[in-house]
Amino acid sequence: MELLKIIVPIYLLIPVKLCFVSSDGEGVKVTTKYGTIQGLTRHFPDIDKPIKGVKKFLGIPYAAPPTGDRRLQPPQEPFSWKPAVYNASYFRNICLQDPEYNNFFWPNFTLAQSEDCLYLNVYAPNQNLPPSELYPVMVYIHGGGYDAGTPAVSPGDVIPLWGVVLVTIQYRLGVLGFATTRDSQAPGNSGMLDQIEALKWVQENIKDFGGDASSVTIFGESAGGSSVGLQLLSPRSKGLFHRAISISGVDLSPFAIGSSTEVAKQTRKVAKQLGCSSSDNREMIKCLQSVDAKRFPVNEVNVWRPMVDGDFLPDTPENLREAGKFHRVPYMAGFTSREGSYFFPNILANATPENFRYDTETIFYNIGSKYGQMMDGGLPKPLLDTIELLYTPWANKSDTDKVRKGIADEVGDFTMTAPTHKGLLFHSQKASAYMYEFAHLSGLDPSPLWKGTAHKDDTPYQFGFPFMNLTVLQKYDDIDRNVSDMVITLFTNFAKYGNPTPQPVRGVSWEEFNSSRKAYLRIHSVPEMAINFQPTRMAFWNGYYENMLKEEPKPCKSQSGESDVISLDLFCFVCGLCLFSISFGHI
User: Fold this and answer.
1) 11-35 b/e (C-beta count within 10 Å ≥ 16 → b)
2) pLDDT in tens, the chain (587 residues)
């Protein structure tokens, strides 16, 4: 069977009608080591919080423009603008990316693109503390599959009302962020080093905005979530943050890193396209640094990834986690209830019970095996059999919507849910860990019910959209505002104390995740603690899947005496599944 190769859109982008929030126009100034910055203030008298105003400083350079001979190189310190006053009242350029994705995901989006894009935004409470006190800091890393995205679509205006300073950052994307020659000419991982440079800027300057450099929490979603996970593993980021939150993506997600060999191969492919082909890496990079940046291809997705380079990332995430080589800071990670319904929209729209198996094989052929490498040919039959066994709605196998749920769940489990679960099992052995499932579905959401709470559906609640009347395909009601208040409270509590519930929130105290109970918080209108999220599915992806990919089928005798083929791991897994179901009264 020839499989249709399609793109997996691992994007952290929202189809949002942009409404860049207006400010009151009142200017405010802050002086940093690079010079004075002038921003704006915005007041929120109707939000029931002690802090009623926010100071916004948009488009601050945290590194020198990565142009000319700085292109494809690690970031460098920004230039000073003294004695001038820097105008920080508007967003600057977003990093180069496919404009078609801008038009599709962000109607009416007007921000220009440029390789000069290493800017960050600071949102601080408009309330002075005593000189000896400072606010905890949260630094947001946007997603977009390492190919696209900007924090400008997630304005952070209201988060400081909960008593934190928020910083949102941009970093180089696609070929300009991740191209490499695997030597000193273009070391690679530039986009990840940009993130580190932004964290260094925070350490040096955030006190001027009322932020505490000794209390920094990094958080991000999708590729931003996996970025947070990779920063937990990188020796380069030691001491630059003190807590971490991964949302819908972790360092063990299959899209978190790529093959250095493949990235180097793609770099040479681009060089050839741009007339810079050379056997000498120095000459090739010098040529690439002279080409007009707008000639670089930006429409390739799922090609450019962080990689193991022996510097930023010394080894694979799996090996580093197993060896306990990660920053032992409090860590929160979670996912939505049906992550996978965001992806493969054409397959899901046309799914039927009859093509469940074909659709599954097509999806996993395109997602590829671990660390983003494509599978050669189709899935091994025993593996495909097991996925079909686990995700077919056997009691309602002719129900198309339930079939769609099954397909969405297999995608979400593989890419986000199971890797999150596994990463927290490692992390909880050395530091405190918390897991959550975001399960809230707005009563005003027009999406079909089978889609559930999809990838990215939680972002509006984390950024307080219901309080700012920012619309993401729907309006919001009081229940949505209560959920948003709860989520921001949990996240900012974690940033302040390393514990999301130092006091109960909505009547719930969040229990830590560990290997014995695997406790997690279900976030919806009435939050509740639960244990052992989908244990059979988690066991499959985290305990059997990889072995089944590697193992040769074993011949067995059937009742008829003929030789059948069965995977030993499949046999063990199915036996375990039966025993599990019997013990819990499922069969």
Assistant:
1) bbbbebebeeeebeeeebebebebe
2) 333 333 344 333 333 333 334 455 578 999 999 999 999 999 999 999 999 999 999 999 999 999 999 999 999 999 999 999 999 999 999 999 988 765 555 566 778 999 999 999 999 999 988 888 999 999 999 999 999 999 999 999 999 999 999 999 999 999 999 999 999 999 999 999 999 999 999 999 999 999 999 999 999 999 999 999 999 999 999 999 999 999 999 999 999 999 999 999 999 999 999 999 889 999 999 999 999 999 999 988 788 999 999 999 999 999 999 999 999 999 999 999 999 999 999 999 999 999 999 999 999 888 864 434 434 556 788 889 999 999 999 999 999 999 999 999 999 999 999 999 999 999 999 999 999 999 999 988 888 999 999 999 999 999 999 999 887 667 899 999 999 999 999 999 999 999 999 999 999 999 999 999 999 999 999 999 999 999 999 999 999 988 877 655 554 444 444 444 444 444 444 444 443 333 333 33
Helix (H, G, I), strand (E, B) or coil at 27: strand
Tell me the H-state helices in 428-533: 459-462, 465-468, 478-497
The C-alpha angle with vertex 201 and arms to 56 and 325, in degrees rounded to 5, equals: 125
> Measured between alpha carbons, how far is 561 from 575 in angstroms, rounded to an integer?
22
Cα Rg of the chain, angstroms: 24
Can you give the pTM of this predicted structure?
A: 0.90
Instruction: Write the CA distances from 458 to 247, 484, 540, integer angstroms.
Output: 9, 9, 26
Which of these, 335, 338, 339, 379, lies nearest to 361 by C-alpha position? Answer: 379
Enzyme catalytic residues: 222, 339, 455
Beta bridge partners, 557, equal 563
Cβ atoms 170, 94 nearer than 8 A: yes
Identify the burial level of 456 via C-beta atoms within 10 angstroms of its C-beta, where 0-12 means exposed, 13-18 middle and 19 or more buried: buried
Across-strand partners of 29? 38
Length of the chain: 587
